[in-house]
Write a structure and sequence with these properties.
Largest sheet: 9 strands, mixed
Bound molecules: zinc ion
Strand content: 15-25%
Helix content: 40-55%
Mean pLDDT: 92
Structural class: alpha+beta
Distance between the termini: 54 Å
Low-confidence stretches: none
Number of helices: 17
Radius of gyration: 30 Å
Oligomer: single chain
Shape: elongated
């Protein structure tokens, strides 16, 4: 048991996540400005998203279609009517003084996201709702000559379409929160709803955290942590907050409801403000927009646009391709990786070997190169070619690793590299026997030691033969031949 588990042993953490995802539309939610990251500040704006008097919003149909896709992908119920409301608050990045969101009648309710639960089984994390809203702008505190004296505001992001996905408090620790976020991201990526780029802010997460004595039913007072801008920080911040609450309660204190800001550099939370209640926002229906009517056909259209989703694919990789659940869950997190693996598995006829290659070598190289999979020099067919060479005994596993490195660097196919560099595994007994006999004859002391019962010496002999053959000998055949030679057969 780690220090954290020991500390919180008597308590059960209760966590719910609120995830904001920017939708992959061409334009903003209520105007024709481009939805694009990285442009010069305040170049993607118009009277509507600047909140100028008299400007009227009009709803982006594509944004609704993508939000519906997220809803059906997570098994939500979509009521026929939802309502946009104004959420009123003042902040310099919010030119209108309110954010158009949904409150009483959200786009979708219910639904769930499947994660791997304790003990390796599947656990369904329930969703409370998915609603649509517009993003706010962004304050710029650094990177300009005047930074330090003033802050700037960039309104390019103001009005960009978001969905907020609110989970029920079903998560029981930092690991589950991490797993949930991973699974949700997978669903949104597969469905083409969002690019989920946390660095660019297109996926953001707030966490509601409370603790209760183990076995208790009633929920404790919760705090909300904001500013969780990476998967790692989500888990770290939640762990930190659980530990803080436990220590507070253990020393006779009381958790107060508040909003906390996570400081990743210092690894701690700081109080931001006492938590607002919904009535602080004075929600009321947006008078400039009609209610949003979603027909059954529209929902059906969203459903048809969905590909096979990660959870289904994970189950199929286990049942159809015989992968261990762990492999299946790693390989299905991102669709390009899953597609790549599946193509390699089918072309090689050896799914488990293909899985090993993708999970270790391919993912490692991608990380090193920091490039997307589609740009890699080794396609799935080429990888399958290498797997087949190993399976046929043409190259040893060790040699295959070197061949893979060369394939990755040059884009050349495995058989061509093996042929040119003479890397074919020596499985031919007559050739191997000559080397084996030579090694045994040259090491009488070791041979005597083996014959006197120290069978561990066999490993030493195998090593000698491998060295003399430049690693190309088939170690199993070598072992067999050595045993015979040493026994004097
Ligand atoms: Zn605009």
């Amino acid at each position: 048991m780690g220090a954290f588990e020991e500390l919180v042993a008597g308590y059960e953490p209760v966590i719910g996540l609120e995830v904001h995802a920017q939708l992959l539309t061409r334009t903003k939610l209520f105007c024709g400005c481009a939805n694009r990251f990285g442009a010069e500040p305040n170049t993607l704006v118009c009277p509507v998203c600047l909140g100028l008097p008299g400007a009227l919003p009009f709803l982006n149909r594509q944004a609704v279609s993508l939000a519906l896709r997220a809803a059906v992908a997570t098994g939500c119920t979509v009521p026929p009517v939802s309502v946009f409301e104004r959420k009123n608050y003042f902040y310099p990045d919010l030119p209108k003084g309110y954010q158009v969101s949904q409150y009483e009648k959200p786009l979708a309710t219910g639904g769930h996201v499947a994660i791997t639960g304790p003990g390796g089984g599947e656990k369904l994390v329930r969703l409370a709702r998915i609603h649509m809203e517009e993003d706010a702008g962004k304050l710029l505190h650094e990177g300009f000559p005047w930074s330090g004296e003033r802050s700037g505001v960039d309104l390019n992001r103001a009005g960009v379409p978001l969905i907020e996905i609110v989970s029920e408090p079903d998560l029981r620790g930092p690991d589950e929160a991490h797993a949930y976020l991973t699974a949700l991201r997978g669903v949104l990526l597969y469905a083409g709803v969002s690019d989920c780029n946390m660095e660019e802010g297109s996926l953001r997460c707030d966490a509601n955290v409370s603790i209760r004595p183990r076995g208790a039913e009633a929920l404790g007072t919760r705090t909300e942590i904001k500013n969780l801008n990476s998967f790692r920080n989500v888990a770290r911040a939640i762990e930190h907050e659980i530990a803080r609450q436990v220590a507070l309660v253990e020393s006779g204190g009381r958790v107060v409801q508040e909003t906390l800001l996570w400081n990743a550099d210092r690894g701690e939370t700081a109080s931001m403000r006492s938590k607002e209640e919904a009535h602080d926002y004075r929600y009321f229906p947006e008078p400039d927009l009609p209610t949003l009517a979603v027909t059954a056909e529209w929902v059906e259209e969203a459903r048809r646009a969905l590909p096979e989703l990660p959870a289904e694919r994970r189950r199929r990789f286990v049942s159809e391709l015989g992968l261990p659940p762990y492999d299946a869950s790693v390989l299905t997190q991102e669709r390009p990786v899953a597609d790549y693996f599946e193509a390699a598995a089918r072309a090689s006829g050896n799914p488990k070997a293909a899985s090993n290659w993708v999970m270790t070598e391919v993912l490692r190289k991608l990380k090193e190169d920091d490039r997307p999979l589609v740009e890699s020099a080794v396609g799935p067919e080429a990888l399958a070619g290498l797997v087949r060479l190993v399976d046929a005994g043409t190259v040893s596993g060790k040699t295959a690793k070197d061949v893979f490195e060369k394939m990755w660097a040059t884009g050349e196919e495995a058989p061509a590299i093996v042929e040119r560099e003479g890397l074919t595994q020596l499985s031919d007994d007559s050739a191997l026997r000559a080397v084996v006999d030579e090694v045994v004859a040259g090491s009488p002391d070791q041979a005597a030691s083996y014959r006197s019962g120290k069978t561990a010496a066999l490993g030493w002999f195998v090593g000698q033969v491998m060295r003399r053959t430049g690693g190309r000998a088939n170690p199993q055949r070598v072992g067999d031949l050595l045993r015979k030679a040493l026994a004097g057969v």
